[in-house]
Fold these 2 entries.
Entry 1:
Amino acid sequence: MCGIIGVFNHPEASNISYLGLYALQHRGQESGGIISTDGNEFYSHKAMGLVSDIFPKETIDRLKGNLAIGHVRYSTTGASLLNNSQPFLINYAHGTLVVAHNGNLVNAEEIKHDLVSKGAIFQSSMDTEVIMHLIAQYPEESLIERIAYALKRVSGAYSLLFMTHDRLITARDPHGIRPLVLGRLGDSWVVASETCVFDLIEAEFVREVEPGEILVISKKGLKSYHPFPPRKPANCIFEHIYFARPDSVLFGDTVYEIRKELGRVLAREHPVEADIVIPVPDSGIPAAIGYAQELNLPWEMGLIRNHYVGRTFIEPSQSIRHFGVKIKLNAVRSVLEGKRVVVIDDSIVRGTTSRKIIKMIRAAGAREIHVRISSPPTDFPCYYGIDTPTRMELIASSHSVEDIRRYITADSLGYVTARALNDAVDANHSFCDACFTGKYPIRFPGIESGQPRQPTLF
Amino acid sequence: MCGIIGVFNHPEASNISYLGLYALQHRGQESGGIISTDGNEFYSHKAMGLVSDIFPKETIDRLKGNLAIGHVRYSTTGASLLNNSQPFLINYAHGTLVVAHNGNLVNAEEIKHDLVSKGAIFQSSMDTEVIMHLIAQYPEESLIERIAYALKRVSGAYSLLFMTHDRLITARDPHGIRPLVLGRLGDSWVVASETCVFDLIEAEFVREVEPGEILVISKKGLKSYHPFPPRKPANCIFEHIYFARPDSVLFGDTVYEIRKELGRVLAREHPVEADIVIPVPDSGIPAAIGYAQELNLPWEMGLIRNHYVGRTFIEPSQSIRHFGVKIKLNAVRSVLEGKRVVVIDDSIVRGTTSRKIIKMIRAAGAREIHVRISSPPTDFPCYYGIDTPTRMELIASSHSVEDIRRYITADSLGYVTARALNDAVDANHSFCDACFTGKYPIRFPGIESGQPRQPTLF
Amino acid sequence: MCGIIGVFNHPEASNISYLGLYALQHRGQESGGIISTDGNEFYSHKAMGLVSDIFPKETIDRLKGNLAIGHVRYSTTGASLLNNSQPFLINYAHGTLVVAHNGNLVNAEEIKHDLVSKGAIFQSSMDTEVIMHLIAQYPEESLIERIAYALKRVSGAYSLLFMTHDRLITARDPHGIRPLVLGRLGDSWVVASETCVFDLIEAEFVREVEPGEILVISKKGLKSYHPFPPRKPANCIFEHIYFARPDSVLFGDTVYEIRKELGRVLAREHPVEADIVIPVPDSGIPAAIGYAQELNLPWEMGLIRNHYVGRTFIEPSQSIRHFGVKIKLNAVRSVLEGKRVVVIDDSIVRGTTSRKIIKMIRAAGAREIHVRISSPPTDFPCYYGIDTPTRMELIASSHSVEDIRRYITADSLGYVTARALNDAVDANHSFCDACFTGKYPIRFPGIESGQPRQPTLF
Amino acid sequence: MCGIIGVFNHPEASNISYLGLYALQHRGQESGGIISTDGNEFYSHKAMGLVSDIFPKETIDRLKGNLAIGHVRYSTTGASLLNNSQPFLINYAHGTLVVAHNGNLVNAEEIKHDLVSKGAIFQSSMDTEVIMHLIAQYPEESLIERIAYALKRVSGAYSLLFMTHDRLITARDPHGIRPLVLGRLGDSWVVASETCVFDLIEAEFVREVEPGEILVISKKGLKSYHPFPPRKPANCIFEHIYFARPDSVLFGDTVYEIRKELGRVLAREHPVEADIVIPVPDSGIPAAIGYAQELNLPWEMGLIRNHYVGRTFIEPSQSIRHFGVKIKLNAVRSVLEGKRVVVIDDSIVRGTTSRKIIKMIRAAGAREIHVRISSPPTDFPCYYGIDTPTRMELIASSHSVEDIRRYITADSLGYVTARALNDAVDANHSFCDACFTGKYPIRFPGIESGQPRQPTLF
């Protein structure tokens, strides 16, 4: 997953971008980058690590200009990590173009195959590079037409920021899968993945960038293009369930409230006699509140999170094993001992973490452990940008709820149903819930919609 | 403040120490160090930064041996920071001695003056160095007698770990101000500042190191000495209120439970008609639970904490100002809008942070804001190891509760009373609450107890 | 300037590459990189800095496989330095291709213009990227034909190493401007910029890669292609005069001997009555020996070089100024005092360094200072890879020898003549001496040979 | 070995110190440090590495004040390297005292034993710490008397710089073993190990700090003390032969000239029929010049030195072995092939390096190899600061010249005789040549002069 920010017409554009990335750090902790321009030169810094570590003041000072875009990224490990970090800068026939991308294309491989067969060279394994090739190849003068052409060729999820020496251009796929919002900060415009950025920099939220919109921000003001035929929106439901920050307003609703409502729904669908409700912190907290409120049960913090978890944890080789979740969470015996405990989590992926958490809670003296998940079983992988494992590894894709309960050693296990999930989220919206239903809104190349296959990623 | 750990007879002593420091990181984020011994050589690594950053695997591998002690430290900035980091190693008449210290001495300056007048040289500004000089100078063969002599000379708070090439010796001041606990891990012994270490490394909690005890751990087993006349215990109440981790068992009670109970007490002392209770995360959470439960009010997470706050935050110079607390916390409008909100925090120091938090909550639409503090007003500085500011800077030392309320712009403000605080904590214990009452349990040199002055620190 | 090395079929290919780069460090101190392959994956490390600093053992260990190429690079500062570092890896229609390049193309801009007009995108400012695009675009299956096509399109100086998952391919421009040599190390093949690499790794020198040759090294052995019409060789004379290491055998001659012979020639052309001959170390040493031997004068080390010159020298801001050459060189008074001194240097570029050296020698008491330069006046810039300044900055391009003498404050000044230079170097060779004569062997696009213009570099 | 510099009354004292250390880098490459004072605070930076790497501009800027001392150090590896780096700062009865030390004490262990038996603690393994204890313990108000007392107690070689908040105090042992010179830079005073510092910073050489002198530099000017009874000087002859920079004026003579004269002496004592003389660079160059001039033979650079030798060279594990000297030096075949070669080196320690060099020269085609050493056989270890190995490892202490010749595989081998060495150096001086003669000028504790034993170093 990734987080993006673009700043137009601000004297400290790179510093605002830095703050924005900092507020979006939860969307990607592996690498970060900012490219700025003073209308003449382009200034770039990309590095592996957390935003607060990789952008010392001297670096920010070096990133001059009123226009900047930034990017944070999480990805599985690969051979040439820094090569794949963004923003991504190219020189092409019409000058310099910079891009930052959140999302994932489903037909990148096909287009790439086509491009390389015609002689294109690729220097990264990012699907974003495919978009840049398409933009560069289209025989039109206008950048907007080139971008529109490129985006018509690709399928998938994308929230995009382009930067030239004097324009900030943002685009969102016709389904609006990943979030993208527009804000105003005095005379400056800011585009970001989530509204929590605006809270931090004290910008005013203006509106979402619309699904299928290409929005050009220049000295002449804002100009909006809608080159695509309208599609049914398919906002990613998993942003609400897990990914986004709870204080963000996403697709029109506060994430926190959706999560709390899912807790209520869960309580109605899977009530249980219990002494206490505890969340798996931090993402499980709002749902735990909703669940507890609905059943009038007390809720407490029975699991304490260590805030200093580093990225490189060294596990002792000989004598201590399987730290796993212990390095992040600890159970509070006095809260749990002798209690019937409801544990609220947002999802179960492979099941191994849940199993360890339950073991820890039971070791702390819990009498009964009832696991409640504030989403339906995750049966299908996401091809639109969330790094879920393949179906093979998703425990829910091949096991019944009872199987999973036994594996994680819970006394009971309940998920929100897909129907209840749909009722819980705003009726005016239409979400992508393919990870629960397998109903993928975007076709894979050569396949009918709704019949996904695992694309071979390059 | 500091955190310490000692490991005896473990094949991966330095790795266990590393894990222990990791669990104690909340006690000091500025620098960390581990010194180990294989019975022959001593191996040392000390550096500025977080434990997970400064101990790469190669470094841990280099710290050989079955015996190790570690230290994490927070301190205000100074000229030669690394010089002051611990553990601290000396060579003296009887070989090598290593020490790690949590606490603060009140007569270090006087003893230091005496020592230097006799020709001693000091290479750091740590009061720990005073103890080492006293140990080295006492004309006795036995290290235990030397340590006992040194500790009889010093006054103040200390939880100490000493290491020779074959022994781990731990000592705690007669008042037991700072915590110190003994655990067992198979055939190994572990001594640490808090029990959360034992949870992580799966050691068994054995008992507290007793106030006034010197405990020697060697191949021959454990041997305990009590060289001091018994004193009335004076466990630091502020460890319970703020400093320790909520999952630790401290002075016989779980921190989490004490905090929750303080919330209940607070509710009884300062009830208010409200719609919602919110904590200032993370330390205010248990008290918020207690407060809400007592008054049967809902509690929610109206403030979201950013978990990626780096140590060096760059504030934009020109256009954005006074980020202060915003970089750490954000208010959730949907939770707060139109509500009468009770905000639970553990203490008010200078008042500036509270003022910013309240401004943020009000900007998010709260109708009324009632601040409740789960401790009495902090009138007096701590001389026993907690880095509170001087009285001059403590807002409560010179302002009435009403003054403070006005300053922080709350609609109402209530503190737990000192009496209620005492009732809330275990009746069997006797705490140091000097920061609230000014009743300092340990005399300053030349002054009567209870009449503190600000010691000149060297 | 750059240095390159390729290693085929060696179990420690990346380590041999590291050693090779280390021996070639004089060809580029700014950045270094190695890419290796085990036939399956490609492993890469590139960084700014000296080879001995940027390749710790763990990094070398990570660069697995029997096949590797390495690159060191010097370049003027630019916006995105690391982006421009080599080796350079692309994915294209036929898999992965890695390249390392020493030299400079003169028609890269024209080809690039053509490529981008057809939609190509460029991610660096290296002319090497042009070659990669041409290779990728040519509609032929065979990589050799693709490479041949690409090299026929480009003009300029290039010694190239290509690597696929199982082949090492090396190519040299038809004029053979930059050096490139082939060596054997047991069952392995090594290709490198200079023979000093073979001395270090104890490889056997086999032969030069021939001008215009494309040499393919694979499991099947060596296969040589000569796709270009034969051209008159034009080996860079400045490699002999300054750039290459004196212990290398270059274009058939030992650099040291050529330099010494130039000293002899210089002595014959510009003898002087003097007490002592001193070189500007280290490049001036062999010419000083030749000069001294020819005139039967003593030669000594009147200038001492500091071997610890770092890349970032901090000049005091207030009181000490214009360190310039003093940080690198110091004059030995006892050698120089009262003497008539001949100072031998290889070239004068801007004249500022010579002026400072002469000032230093005179301050050390020299009675007369006669400067002798072991090459003709540098009138013209190099477009084939040596980072000489533009004509505007070359003092010799706009000033007479007498003007230069006055500027550098020498008592006399003599250069080797172009004719004598030609006589001095092996008669069987034909060199490029365009920097002295302006006779550029390779035409610039659209211009007749011998009428150079300053190409606009992108 | 170490290098030291002190700067008094200069607005950029730390920057001048940095430049001084840079010029003294040959005296110690392992660690460096500077401590400065503005009369109030002390500012310190010490780190492992080369001066040009460990003092970035920000660090120099942080080291404020008009008064500073610096230190570079070479030492064999140890457990706690940074702990042992200098300058060394203590707080004692009379404030703060900083010291930098070049040399080695012979009775430090005895005094340390005495000090620790009285209760002193040691935090490093530096003998300098002994001096600081003695200064702190002496019951006198005056710092000069304290220093005099301490220096009367210790025996050995020391060139010392002390710094208080307002004074720079320098002292040299009564034998004047290590060099120490005083210079003037405008209104500032500079004290340094060698005069090459003055050349760089453009200071004027005033005089040597005299053997046995304590020189106090304060706002009141210079004040000199001579608390010791006069001793026969014993300047270290090995500074001239190997250690000092050739451009330094040492003990009244230019190092370069002494070395050249030793070459002449060597030629007279061990002439040989040969075609060419080559030095082992760089220390052997002046002696090679002298040797060649005396016999009227040509001298050339038959061995080329790689200037980019890093401190951490990674030797390939499997296939290439015993790089040793090859990574630093390469032989030039064209210079050596078929020749009778005289190789001039300054000394032979273990013999292993010489053996490798000769092997390399022979492999380059030399017909005969005659090794000439510009000093007598190194029979005895140095206890006064030069890190020669113990007698056990010194090949000359247990082998005849003929044995050594055979071991290093030379055709002939000649050393300068001790008598000729004495004649060669200035007759007005009296040198310590204990490494050649075993006549140690300073007694070891409890032993008669001239009968050395290996002191146990702590």
Entry 2:
Amino acid sequence: MAQDSIRQMALNARKAGLLLNALSNDRRNQALLAMGESIERNLPQIIAANKRDLQNAERANLNAPMLSRLRFDENKAARVIAGLAALATLPDPLGHVQYANELADGLRLYRVSCPIGVIGVIFESRPDALVQISSLCLKSGNAVLLKGGREAIETNQALFQAIAEGTAKAGLPDGWCHLLQSREDVASMLQQDDAIDLIIPRGSNSFVHHIMKTSSIPVLGHSEGICHVYVDQAADVAQAVNITVDSKAQNLSVCNAAETLLVHREIAPIFLPAVAQALRDKGIVLRGCPETRKFINCEAATEDDWHTEYLDAILSIKVVADIDEGISHINTYGSRHTDAILSQDAASIERFMTFVDSADVFANCSTRFADGFMYGFGAEVGIATGKIHARGPMGLEGLCTYKYKLYGQGHTMEALNAGAFMLTHRSIPDVDGV
Amino acid sequence: MAQDSIRQMALNARKAGLLLNALSNDRRNQALLAMGESIERNLPQIIAANKRDLQNAERANLNAPMLSRLRFDENKAARVIAGLAALATLPDPLGHVQYANELADGLRLYRVSCPIGVIGVIFESRPDALVQISSLCLKSGNAVLLKGGREAIETNQALFQAIAEGTAKAGLPDGWCHLLQSREDVASMLQQDDAIDLIIPRGSNSFVHHIMKTSSIPVLGHSEGICHVYVDQAADVAQAVNITVDSKAQNLSVCNAAETLLVHREIAPIFLPAVAQALRDKGIVLRGCPETRKFINCEAATEDDWHTEYLDAILSIKVVADIDEGISHINTYGSRHTDAILSQDAASIERFMTFVDSADVFANCSTRFADGFMYGFGAEVGIATGKIHARGPMGLEGLCTYKYKLYGQGHTMEALNAGAFMLTHRSIPDVDGV
């Protein structure tokens, strides 16, 4: 697409976004259901398109996990459609009064949640992500520009058509959702800083970083998880073995899986042999620091290992002198995603929770719990790895901002200064929806 | 300063920030008071430094408002010191439990407010801003890199010394606050994306934009206010004249002053002559669209006027066919700061409040009320003109983020999947401070 057409898309999305913001929750929920019906109706074409993507991917020798992520069949469609119905039942994220204060007699201030406006999302080669992201944007009243992985290009096009058709029938404003095709489209999108309010890139650290460097639009990065498990001196060994194995091996290819194990040197002689055996039983390859290799046989870890998100059956292990060396390692090499301490000592736990500078800090449980559904949000946009706006597992709230609405009866600053009225700053109780 | 030393500053600030985050509210408040005492003790040197800045500014022919902003005398010092004492009495923004949920038996999740970490602030030539910003960062547990206007360089240096001395005595970690000297320093700072979490630039739209384009660190812009007053068909004319005059003329040089007046054409024949007289009595020069000039004598407005924040005794005026043309003008030319509708019609007010895409949308009161102190926040960092993280008048909350703390008792995903325990998602009532 030419740069002009991306500009036009963004401007159309801006217009549509302003209209979406005024639609009732019922109307948005009806559109979510219509989206699901349209996917159901268009399923033969979508699956045919997916077969073409899969054939191309096989010709390009994509590996089995990639092919499995790319596949969009009846089962995945059913899950996606059920997800849309579930999203429609979640509470409206818009119109919440977050702060209500009577500044003076008859001068009432309300801070009310509202959509951000127009969001550009760049996501990986999972076609179901297209449905998930566009539906989350719709539920939160945002217009959206979507760019999926190029391996899924035909499936994405077919899904996008179905979504556009379904939501048009449900009366959504034209242009609320757009699909981009190429890297050049993304480059153009990143320049539309007057028409797009937020970019959400999902992918590797270096990809997210590239987007941040390229765009002057605010970016909410969803990048990799270099997650740590720190086993304290005061850990329960059997429990620590269990949690370490779960954090690493329960699912290898997710961002909340552990990549590095840090072990207090006082517990290393007992813990390391036990955990090594349990991890090897799950097929995990170990790479250890010199100290680690005094207690177990394994490959030598290099500096690179501490920086690496394997997403694979590999775990790096380092023995540390004390909890502070563990915390410092995490703050140096981690990606501020999720890190856990395993300890029965309350003071150590609090020290870890305070000083580890990550979105999710866990005590005595698996890193795998870092997830929006687990947290009770009902829906998840992803896991934000920055500190601004939204941090960690991000629900619908992360797709909203707020505005201040101030209602007066002729109030002026001149009159306030002249003593004609006084500031009272009385909290207004129990308001929801203005 | 060499780029190396800015790098070192940022890394020192990162270390200090992690320590600050663990200081109690009492310790932070004591440091705020120590800051005030040290400014008091060092006042002769600070005022002498300010005299040198003022002499240089006079030689450079700075205008009177600029000189007045630059001046730092006993009166300003007294106000600044009182401000520090007031800040110390505000509630702690840290450690608030924003969400507490028992995910399963014995698996408790808390979302707790915490400092962002390291913040870089670039601010205008008002030396009191240096004290204000550093104290807000301290209260919220953040380390800070400061860059003030170059006209205030000597005063800033003297104030910074006093702050560093006072807070060191109060036991704050070394390196929690740094002062940058030059534009090159700023350029280096913008590259430290692994050590600085947020940049807050205060200044013109183009300046804020430049920072956003240059840095890959998240930016919270505090840029200009192109604020509008829209006078609806159903306005009370006398009240509308009052509010328009207050919004424009009560203080010319502030970002929440009105720059453009939009008038519904049905009310223009009555309203325009009345408001023109009242504005001229205050010395305001008017620039009107062709339609406006049918009702009052004034200069012709050009396209440029709609884009301009005058910060001066000038007001541009446009007659619009209906409320939607008014809203559309604001969304096209405004800076998403503060815009007011003057109307006695509830439906028009709601339409305006919903569709104007600004941080502050007001009905029947002066735009001058867009202010953190007015809003009851006790302190103001500035007025954020973006939509992400913090929007509109920004209090201490805007300098905070949150982290998720999850406390378990050996919980693993494997056990959950095996049915060994179940998700319960029970809200944990009435927690504050974990």
